[in-house]
Write a structure and sequence with these properties.
The chain has nine helices and ten strands. By secondary structure, it is α/β, with parallel strands linked by helices. The chain has a single domain (3-271), classed as LigB-like (Protocatechuate 4,5-dioxygenase, Chain B). A hairpin with a 4-residue loop joins strand 4 (70-75) and strand 5 (80-89). The chain is globular, with a radius of gyration of 17 Å.
């Protein structure tokens, strides 16, 4: 077994009907693309869906992984406390990931309630997970998950962490899907949350092109000043995702991109042949 399918999902809580209401019409293309992505993932019947989020508890030197048996999160922070999502954790995969990550000299912090008092209630699913999870569970999948929060490591280290994730999935012989939760620039317009920067559009264009054509090296070597100017959210999720797909015969498809509120929302799908035997020698789709 191994990775069956993967995707990129944005995470604006407005996509949730109980939060967005009629405002969802302003990001209808994103909502429809997320439904398509979720249906495609559900069609592969993964045993576990792995989410990589920028909004969970973050540590400087090590990715964090939730490690309680049950995962849960709600939208209390967005005035919808009644929308509660639950999933079983894949603890066997969590432990395998910690072991494989150590081989890359990257430690993993396992977060359990009661063991990190300073985090308290933060050890729950954040909206970087719950937004795509809402769509996945509506489509009939993601009843068992793993939730990873990246660390601000080097781009190369994040890619290698993704490769460790691929190996961990193989070690436990799991049929898995990977979802990178990522918004793009938050500086696309004068009214954007982080204010306007002219390079925000440049960043989004580069990332969208890279996802569309599966240009891995382009993202690994992206100008860090451009990343900073763009005020992005989730590039590191993408790098882990791409590492997890390293060497696999990936076909990429951009399902949608829009930025009506000054924030770029990408939805992308990465499919693999129904029968693939493991990594080939490709690193990227550049040829």
């Amino acid at each position: 077994m191994g990775i069956l399918i993967a995707g990129v999902s944005p995470h604006p809580p407005m996509l949730i009907p109980e939060i967005g209401g009629r405002e969802i019409d302003k990001i209808r293309r994103t909502a429809e693309a997320l439904k398509k992505l979720s249906a495609e993932i559900a069609s592969r019947q993964p045993e576990t869906v792995v989410f990589i989020t920028p909004h969970g508890p973050m540590f400087q030197e090590a990715p964090a992984v939730l490690a309680d048996e049950e995962l849960a999160g709600d939208f209390s922070a967005f005035r919808a406390p009644g929308v509660i999502l639950r999933a079983q954790n894949d603890l066997e995969l969590v432990q395998a990931l910690a072991g494989e990550s150590r081989k890359e000299e990257i430690e993993v912090i396992l977060l359990r309630r009661g063991e990190q008092d300073f985090l308290r209630e933060e050890i729950s699913l954040d909206h970087g997970v719950t937004v795509p999870l809402y769509f996945m569970q509506e489509a009939g999948t993601a009843q068992r998950c793993v939730a990873i929060t990246f660390a601000p490591l080097s781009f190369d280290a994040l890619f290698r962490f993704g490769q460790a994730l691929q190996r961990a999935i193989s070690v436990v012989d799991r049929k898995a899907a990977i979802v990178a939760s990522a918004d793009l620039s938050h500086r696309l317009t004068r009214s954007a949350p982080a204010g306007y920067h002219p390079r925000g559009r440049e960043y989004d264009d580069l990332v969208v092109e890279s996802l569309t054509h599966y240009q891995v090296e382009k993202l690994l070597s992206i100008d860090k000043e451009l990343v900073s100017d763009a005020g992005e959210c989730g590039l590191r999720s993408l790098l882990i995702l791409l590492g997890s797909l390293s060497g696999l015969p990936v076909q990429s498809q951009l399902l949608s991109y829009e930025g009506p509120f000054g924030v770029g929302y990408p939805v992308a799908l990465f499919t693999l042949p129904a029968q693939h035997t493991g990594p080939d020698k490709r690193v990227s789709g550049d040829g």
